[in-house]
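Lecture notes, unit on protein representations.

Consider one protein chain, 778 amino acids long.
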Amino acid sequence: FNLDVPLAGKDNQALPLFFEADHLEGQPDDRLRATGSVRLKQGDLTVRADEVTHTYQDNTARAVGNVRISRRGDFYSGPELTLKLDTLEGEFVKPNYRFARTKAGGHADLVEFLGNNRLRATNATYSSCTPENTADGQPGEPDWVLVTRKVTMDIDANEGRAEGAVIRFLGVPILGAPVLTFPLTDARKSGWLPPSFDVDNKSGIELAVPYYWNIAPNQDATFMPTVSTRRGAGLDTEYRYLLPSDSGTLHFYALPDDQVAQRSRGLVDFRHQGDLNTSGDPTVTTYDLRWRRLSDDDYWKDFPRNLPSLTPRLYDSHASIERQLNTRNWGLGNSQTSLYANVQTWQTLRDLSPTADAETQVISPYRREPQLGVHSRSTSEAGWAWNLTGEFNRFSNEDRTRISGDRLHAIARLERPMGDSGIAITPRLTLHAVSYSLDRPLANGQKEASRFIPTFSIDSSATLERQTNFFGQDLVQTLEPRVEYVYTPYRTQSELPLFDSAPRDFNQYSSFDENAFTGVDRISDANKVNLGLTTRLLNPLTGEEAMRLGLVQSVLFSTQRITPNDEPPANQRLSDLLVLGSTTVAPHWTLSGTAQFSAQGHRNERSVIGIRYSPGAWRTISADYRYTRDSNEQLALGWQWPIFGKKPPMNDMARQAVAETNAMNFDKPASGGSSCKGTWYSVGRLNYSLRDSRFADTLYGFEYDAGCWIGRIVAERVSVGRDQASTRFMFQLELVGLSRLGSSPLRALRDNIPGYRLLREDNSVLTAPSTLPISSDD
């Protein structure tokens, strides 16, 4: 914690000293005694007392009776203060204190000032709770309190040292240290961090005691020894560095002897980014390096909380560099050109469980060894725009049954945007050329193949507006039609390899792409018109969108013969119809939805509907329905909601804090806006598969906000296979104004609950594990 020294400091020593009092007696150059509402001020330091005596010879001020000190938002009070203004030495008897940054305080038997910005406190306490009144009417112990036998602080060195420190919660000691050191500001400092523990069905109970090493102003590392009741001892390490033009991280986890798997486990994740620019060089060169490796295929099942939630079984490693050339005139207008190179590999974790089948496996992407390319865009004063991309790739795959080889491709595009006053028309001509040199023959017996396909399109859109009134509210309604014609002749491509092409997701944006596939290996033939219509309701003053409705559909003039996975040609004249909408017209409610209807089968192919109700802070409920024909149907419910107790409104909390400040009431430490009378919150997210009639991933728990401390208990279940799941229990105690203890569920709550908010913003002295340790051995 932070005891800011109530001294004038170096900046105040040369400032004049002001007295205010009801009565003054004596001589300023000898001995001056002030009584009755005394106020002494020097710079940002203010002292109030019933009586202050100043001795000129030793420049000492002695204050007695309701002594109160304020400086930079921090306040102190006590019965007696003695202070030498020249040397800033003295003592404060039985002071109470409160700190603005943490909204917490405490009291001490004695505070000794040891010179400029140094002090020592004896039998000091620290808490953000208001002590509850006991039966005899006397103040009792607050819900939590940090008690120390002696605290020494050096403001200039940014270091505090506490001896005999004990944290008591509800009267029970929960954490203690014979010597505890801490920083006095947000500056980083080496030392031990609060311990944490996790409970899950894979590893049992795991205890971690992290140590933070502040290597240099631009480097630090965190070492976290762990011990698990089922798996044994391990070490989790993170190293970070920041250079003038570079930055990077190294994450390393080692479990030398997994008692469950009977082998060593671990991961390595190295990331480095930077630039190679020199002063005066108009070009920009950037590079990105990343190398990731996991020890085994079962890692994603046994340690899911250490992995990304979206791709827990797919990890890329790459080394890329890009050089952006300065704007030049090549005779075609202003040109921006970039050269790039990349090497990319993948590690794919397989599902080795006995019930695994083809549906549960992940197909490994192709490696690029290497990828070399150039991209250029030019614009002329006449409005023409040219785009040229040329690229060479060497593709290989860990699955030796899949074809490998080289690919050289070029894409040239010429377009001429036109329009004004809300109308835009853009004709475009695109040329696709590709050449393959493969390691083994294709179905036709050839190792070499090439393809050239032109595409012509003309895209037009308009934006029309009118004033309207909706439910008594003045709004602006827009009407935004869009029409795009695309023509691409058919070229046979079924024998060509599929290195990086896949069908595009069908949405309002991809519907207006010229090609129905990503990548280069497949170019869909087309003779069609893409139609879209959007209308929006906007607030005329803020531009905030109150409602959006849209329709997207394509009209095919000929059969599309290039289809995903060599499916039968698409001979229908109308594509699927996409209907989308969202609204926030009703206060606190948000409704959005997208539906894809088959024009041929007259049925719903895919739909997503979401609704969210958020009437205020810490109150949000959301529900989502997702459906894909012959694939999945899922319901999701997420919430954060108070279920018991009453939380004071934010304006009441603010008024209370202002009143406490103005009154400078130090009879007891401030509560941080509450008197430790709490509110229970329910938090969670449930994902239920209607197709499988079971819950998939679930998260459920409770938070208790007592004002000066917060308790959290959360259970999380993550599916790691068709019939397997990892269950984790997280318990956390947050001592507001000090630190968080236990296993943190905050990342899981933020990632899973839309609109989740912390019950208390970070204002604790010891909150950030990577920067603010609670103890140190140096």
